[in-house]
Structure prediction request, 303 residues.
Amino acid sequence: MTSIRSRSVPIAIFALLTLLPTVAAAQREDREREPNDTRRDANRVSLGVVAGEISSNEDADYFKIALPEFGILYLDIEAEAAGSPLDAALEIYRSNNVRIAAMDNTDCSYDPELVFVSPEDGTFYIKVFAADGRGGEGFSYRLHLATASVGTEEVVEEDLMNDFISQADLWPIPSIIVGLIMSDDGFPDSDFFAFEGHKGQKVVFDIFAVRNEGMTGVDPSSLDGRLTLYQWQDGEDSVVLAENLSANKADPQIIHTFQEDGPLYLEVEDQWNETGTNHYYFLFVYELPQLHEVPESIFEDCV
Ligand SMILES: [Ca+2]
Ligand SMILES: [Ca+2]
Ligand SMILES: [Ca+2]
Ligand SMILES: [Ca+2]
Prediction:
């Protein structure tokens, strides 16, 4: 009993830290203030919830938020999950108007969610719009904003024997892995990793490669990455659960909620099958808070 008791204190503190973003999100709810169709008219927001509506086909809603360098911002749109007909999409811009992140759909939902790490201390712009160009009365959404923490600072190198799913090593959640897409024989390179999750755990798999451009002291990577998440058992075919190629030289990212206990397999590759000594990446794998209820029905007929 003594050993369980002595362990329970740090676990309780850890649980509290993990819950903090959710608590902060629940305390504050704002409503968008039109006009906010351009960056210049962006509504200033903070962590919490902003309720809005894409009220016409032409409507776009801009918000702005101040972030510290390397601050993690987790954005989660609740629209389809709440019965709205809106097919929402999210884009993030730096103050110099360069787009640094974009997301349309996640897993089996039209609702986007994304995580990004601010490359500098400053103001960032969030654009919410209809991916299919359809808006109107009732095309409502709630934008949840929270912070997250990776939970480790240890960076571990890939095991180079990882070219096939059967060679994947089991890695913990959280992990920060540094890897290289490179081969000596002219063939494309793939890197496979296995992660043991538990049912209901929401995990982000996030590549940092081209995003390193502009970060101080780091050469940009030439990797135009592709991520694929598989379910697999030895002796069986693998099933694709999620994939992300990223658009326009943005790094790929997958946010996935484990539907059952057990390992899932992640493949990292270059989407043009290019390799080289400058095709390096950092892979961040960590847990996210659950910011709102997700109806079971959304995941019907969905792996
Ligand atoms: Ca609006
Ligand atoms: Ca607007
Ligand atoms: Ca969408
Ligand atoms: Ca490899």
Remarks:
- The pocket of calcium ion (ligand 1) is lined by residues 32, 34, 52-55, 59, 61 (CB under 6 Å).
